[in-house]
From TrEMBL:
Binding-site residues for FMN, renumbered to this chain: 90, 144, 201
Keyword Ribosomal protein: no
Family of this protein: Belongs to the NtaA/SnaA/DszA monooxygenase family.
Record's protein name: F420-dependent methylene-tetrahydromethanopterin reductase
InterPro entries, sorted: Diverse_substr_monoxygenases, Luciferase-like_dom, Luciferase-like_sf, NTA_MOA
Amino acid sequence: MHLAAHFPGVDNTTVWADPDSGSQIEFASFEHLARTAERGLFDFLFLAEGLRLREHKGRIHDLDVVGRPESITVLNALAAVTERLGLAATVDAGFNEPYELARRFATLDHLSGGRAAWNVVTSSDAFTGENFRRGGYLDRAERYPRAAEFLDTARELWDSWTPDGIPRPFAHRGRHFDIAGEFTLPRSPQGHPVVIQAGDSEEGREFAASAADVVLARQRSLEDGRVFYADVKRRLAKYGRAPGDLKIMPGVGVVLGDTAAEAQERAAEIRRQQTSPQTALLTLEQIWGVDLSSYDPDGPLPDIDPVVDPALAHGRTRRGDTVAIAEKWRALSKEKGLSIRETVIEAGGRHFFTGTPEAVARELDEHVRREAADGFVLVPHLIPGGLDEFVDRVVPLLQERGAFRTEYRGTTLRSHLGLPEPGNRR
């Protein structure tokens, strides 16, 4: 089983009102979570990205976190206070250039001794793009083609030095990038940084099968996970890849208790803290596309149909068919007799593993054994101590089951993940 830790703070996962919640900016918070993950022998620490403060109805979304350091800078600092933990940064391929970004990741990979990872994301969002020189609008159909060429170009740069340390000129002539010159850094101890991808669409799954080393999945049940796992793994063969060349790791929460009832009670309270009445209404507005401030969050869902208004919630607009989502949520609400807030909690959150440490260890192990996942990215609801209990109480049980390592057997992130070092293509 592979385990990773996500430092939350981009959405409403974190319960900021909790007295044990710390800063999402101070380095001590990042260091605490990283040291805890390494103590637990995790594969990597993962940082998300937010390039612009999100808005709702034309104003900064006041229930969202404001203030987020640049990820690679934080990870360079964490490289100095960790020894084995992988260091993964989310960086948008739409608002960067291949040479500059390849150099930054190669630097992190060298400073950390081969522990860097890049979560490749794309954006067609002109709202975010206003923060950048280009104005940032990229047609949605161009997102993955540009990202694929961006990644391929970065790999050409990482491969431009010979294995014995001799630099060679590079030249890339493509649709999106036309660059030539000499790269400043030799190959790192793991060859290339590990590549992570999180898209769940058809294009995203194909991109992951062709180019990624790790997929951050979003499935909410064992059966959904098995379907996604089988679908993505079967795509690998067409690219000459083996099933083990790509690790599928859903993002999950874990809530523990001394009894099952205590854990369920804690989980319900955490979900309610994550989804306040105001958050529930604003979440619903992202789907319905209209102002719902007059609705009672403890009352029934709107009986009106959604309208398309992408300006309502900049940076938070939900993808997909909003009418279909609304119908699904109405059916769920009717079936279980749920209010607006209860429906958002039930339908909108990530999967939680809830129970005693023994029960959670057993369920995590089952998901891996039944090929619903290769491991998990744990998303704690508290910063910086939200991972401590899992490492202290669940990791030893996973080790007793033979489901998780008892020591690091290598020094690079690729060795933790069981991934081959990429050959030099030049």
